[in-house]
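Backbone-to-sequence.
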């Protein structure tokens, strides 16, 4: 089972996650239609950008994507090249290799760590950052099943109020910020294993061998209760550069 990219279709019938009410991919398509030069940061396998370009009423003249993980970059290149979108390999902690004010729209779905100063730098005055972020304590029911109770600092990481303050400190004006908590269900232990292999930061160093006892206990719980319930957290950022 491949773990690169952000295609979660393998989980159909085995796990489910409610989606945020704002429908980010289609909302992104609406923003693309009115943009001139677009950068997607951390595109993953390019799936969201590919979808948004496919349904957008108008294609922007310039679209570029970045990705830091080589398997994802290769997958995104294969997917986005037919749309004329170059994928630039950029490490998560490296400066964006673009000139100041190069883009009027920067988008991102689930960036690992938003680099606000770089986002603000590559946006032109009046440009927009439109993104969906992972929120605080996301899927912590599953994390804590394997790792035990986590410190409050870990739970508070990615809090939208903190991210708002960081965005404003970088010179962005937050126009809209919405947050939702969404139900997830895992219906078999195979779905849990595949999820933890795909989203590797949830349980760092996860292997079946290392967590065999916890996996067995979780399997028995799913068999008894029908599913394991967790909750993801998401927030929508709409910010502008003054």
């Amino acid at each position: 089972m491949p773990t690169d990219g952000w295609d979660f279709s393998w989980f159909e019938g085995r796990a489910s996650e409610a989606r945020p009410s704002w429908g980010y991919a289609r909302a992104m398509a609406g923003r693309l239609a009115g943009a001139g030069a677009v950068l997607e940061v951390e595109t993953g396998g390019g799936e969201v950008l590919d979808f948004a370009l496919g349904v957008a009423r108008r294609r922007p003249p310039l679209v570029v994507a970045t990705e830091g993980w080589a398997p994802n970059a290769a997958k995104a290149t294969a997917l986005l090249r037919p749309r004329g979108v170059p994928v630039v390999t950029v490490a998560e902690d490296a400066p964006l290799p673009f000139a100041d004010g190069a883009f009027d729209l920067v988008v991102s779905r689930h960036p690992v760590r938003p680099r606000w100063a770089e986002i603000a730098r590559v946006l032109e005055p009046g440009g927009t950052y439109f993104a969906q972020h992972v929120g605080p304590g996301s899927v912590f029911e599953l994390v804590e099943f394997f790792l035990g109770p986590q410190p409050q600092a870990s739970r508070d990481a990615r809090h939208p109020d903190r991210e708002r303050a960081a965005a404003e400190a970088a010179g962005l004006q937050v126009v809209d910020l919405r947050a939702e908590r969404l139900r997830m269900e895992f219906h078999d232990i195979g779905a849990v294993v595949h999820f933890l292999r795909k989203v590797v930061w949830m349980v760092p160093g996860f292997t079946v061998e290392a967590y065999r006892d916890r996996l067995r206990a979780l399997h028995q719980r799913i068999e008894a209760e029908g599913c394991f319930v967790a909750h993801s957290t998401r927030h929508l950022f709409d910010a502008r550069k003054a």
